[in-house]
């Protein structure tokens, strides 16, 4: 039985993340800065059905490519601190843009729950979203919410607790990038697995994809790796 869990909230700017944070915590939060940064850090607590949740509000980001300080903070927290559950708050009225971050979180092997927020706005725009089908495609629990009216908050709390209980037992569903690219990813991943320190800290598939993207922060870490020379031979 899970009695205390740590939950990170993440999402694009303006998806209703702060409102969901307030709904979950009752508006009570400890506000400070991230260590060594001037970016605000908010933490709160929630108790539901005997389970205490520590809620961390990560900066609003569009991706995890570490092109900004907010992206680096969010990514490092998920990778380094390994929260029990990551709640990805998605704007139901703008699915295509929002799901880009979701796919990156899947590759990062975060223990995800998707909060499909602004369902009322999506309906007003004429969108009909099959929540069950989306959940099946992503391989993740998807909870429809309307943060402005607190709709779906109990369901979200239940999904968070269930995800925490199933942590490590859920099958990770990776996104296929096509035969040719998958072959390259597999080769790079095989090399990265030889670096025991690096592969113990980060999902090697995610690292391989970031290497191909030219992610500067990941490349800096690779630069100190004993497999750098072998990797450079493959990358040319």
What does this entry look like structurally?
36% of the residues are buried. β5, α3 and β6 (112-117) form a beta-alpha-beta unit. The protein is α/β, with parallel strands linked by helices. It has eleven helices and seven strands. It has helices at residues 17-25, 69-81, 95-107, 119-124, 131-138, 153-165, 179-192, 196-201, 204-213, 216-223, 228-235; strands at 4-11, 30-33, 40-48, 51-57, 85-91, 112-117, 142-144. Strands 2-3-4-1-5-6-7 form a seven-stranded mixed beta sheet, sandwiched between helices. α7 (179-192) packs across α9. The mean pLDDT is 91. It folds into two domains: 4-165, P-loop containing nucleotide triphosphate hydrolases (Rossmann fold), CATH 3.40.50.300; 179-235, no CATH class. The termini are far apart.
Structure keywords:
single chain, about 240 residues, alpha/beta, globular, Rossmann fold
Rg, please?
A: 18 Å
CATH fold name of the largest domain: Rossmann fold
CATH class of the largest domain: Alpha Beta
SS-based structural class? alpha/beta
How much of the polypeptide forms β-strand, as a percent range? 15-25%
Please bin the fraction of helical residues.
40-55%
> Judging by the overall fold, what is the CATH architecture of the largest domain?
3-Layer(aba) Sandwich
- Give start-end ranges of low-pLDDT stretches: none
The biggest beta sheet reads: 7 strands, mixed
Task: Draw up the topology in text.
Elements: E1 4-11, H1 17-25, E2 30-33, E3 40-48, E4 51-57, H2 69-81, E5 85-91, H3 95-107, E6 112-117, H4 119-124, H5 131-138, E7 142-144, H6 153-165, H7 179-192, H8 196-201, H9 204-213, H10 216-223, H11 228-235
Parallel strand pairs: 1-4, 1-5, 5-6, 6-7
Antiparallel strand pairs: 2-3, 3-4
